[in-house]
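Input sequence (623 aa), recorded before submission:
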Amino acid sequence: MALPVPDALGERSGRKESGEGGGAGAGERPDRRRRSPGPDVTRRAAVEEERTDAAEWLEKPTPESAGALADAGYGLLAAPLARRGVRTPSEADAFLAPHRRDLHDPFLLQGMEEAVDRLLTACRDSATVAVVGDYDVDGVTACALLTAVLRALGAEVVPILPNRLTEGYGFQTVQVEKADRAGASLIVTVDCGTTSADAVLAAIERGIEVIVTDHHVVGSDFPSQAIQINPLQDHCGYPFRHLCGAGLAFKLAQGMLRRSGRDEPLAALLRIACLGTIADVVPLVGENRVIAALGLQALSEARSPGLRALMRVARIAGSVSSTEVAFRLGPRINAAGRLADAGLALRLLLTRDAAEADRLAGELDTLNRNRQAEERRVVKQAAELFAARDPLPGILVAWSPEWHRGVVGIAAGRLAREFHRPVILLGVDGETGTGSGRSIPHLDLHSFVAGFRHLTSRFGGHPQAIGLSVAVSELPELRSAMEEGAEWPPEILVRRREYELALSAEQIGTGLYAELARLEPHGEGNRRPLIRLGPLERVGPLREFGDSHVKLRVRSARDGGSEAGRPVWLLGWGWKERAARLDGRFEVLGALEWDSYQGGPVVRLEDARTAGNDQVPERRMSA
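Predicted structure, token format:
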């Protein structure tokens, strides 16, 4: 018997629809494209390009397995595949063609048996179940997915998302009180709860059972009375440890549907799970790659009113790329929780009404524009504070009552990339500072900040991203203690650019693009391969568009009487000033993308230097 999944996750009857154009958010890169018949077209979205200081250029080490893959016929992709952990031809085939058979058995997750049994009992009894999520894309999509499936299986579901500004992050007693007032006999958390022992115990004391599904670092005091599904918990033998909240909600839905004998509407589930998986920046390898790849295929065919409306305001039509999820869809979903109420995004994903979907999508688009403006303001102010420090400490910490707590996390991420060291920003409200920290590669910020937990009132997160609340009176001591303790090995603070291919301009073409596009979808753990190109020389003037973006044609620099080679286009987002200084012979690092406006491949600029290895200078954000 097929499961009647609500339209928010399933297919609506009728024709397949196409998205329509809409207004781009402020700060987004202008949509200059015409649809191309070319291979697996990918588009990079609109955000102001983060700029970098001088960096070392290094070729990524090539594992020994690349030789065997080359011998097996994988050609140009042999080394990139090996660098992504692929060792054998069978693994290469699985990587290049993700398939549903590569999804693991959900019952390999510790706690899954007990959770599924308890939830199916609640569904059979039409009991009230509270699904408590978080306010980011991962939490909202996980909440939407599980809410829809539980309703389809017969439960009365009360979805609960925290308000970032009044309640803060994570599972708290305030959500327990809401669930109790709604008459819930069972609470299921998604993307939160692992470190919320007090809230779990408060629910149990009220006679409410608790199932926690989470992927954050496991706390040591988790109550044994609750069921926990977390691949990071001790003694969990699940073969993949990097699922996000939406990924775990997908596995729980799989388990319930399989145990109840219902068909699994994989496309409907995966198109929601892939949003959280890509937006939460978990590694897009292993099972996450399967979820992302199959979910993107399903997302391109989505007919639910909410998703179609969201894609229209994000100006996405046809196929959907991981880049568009990360930079167009994700930020609009996130904007609700950052500046207003995450429930707006949840209602959009669950609605069956096209008019309501259009209204909600429009609200999210407006909120995203406001978020972009607020983020730029916070980044500018914090960058000016940090630029005044000489020398720079190993960690940068700042706070202000003028900073919106909903954007300090994303601002910290931009500044961490700009200054190449961990950054913690907090917005102050009354006597409390609440904020987020972002790290740099190879530096575990969670472990570092845990050493100062006694100075915080709340703390949690991942190695690369943390959230915390601190009494204002403790902030100066916290900053001083962190700066004193941030004595990293010198090599940690050296910015490095690792490229995978060194090519000439003549090698850039449709065939190369088509081959590299087989590595999609790109994301954390599978970045688009950087290409070292040069030495080059310019052909003709710069073409400027937008406020600070450029295109320029280049060709291989000629020696003596050598013939001119075929030119190639370079594309620089936010590169207006820097590109003007590209003269003589120079080299660039960039990623190959498809320019649908031109109808061919372009190299998106990441870095540049003269042929004599001098970095092409640029101004910092704070200048």
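Checked by second reader. Confidence is low (pLDDT under 50) at residues 1-52, 619-623.
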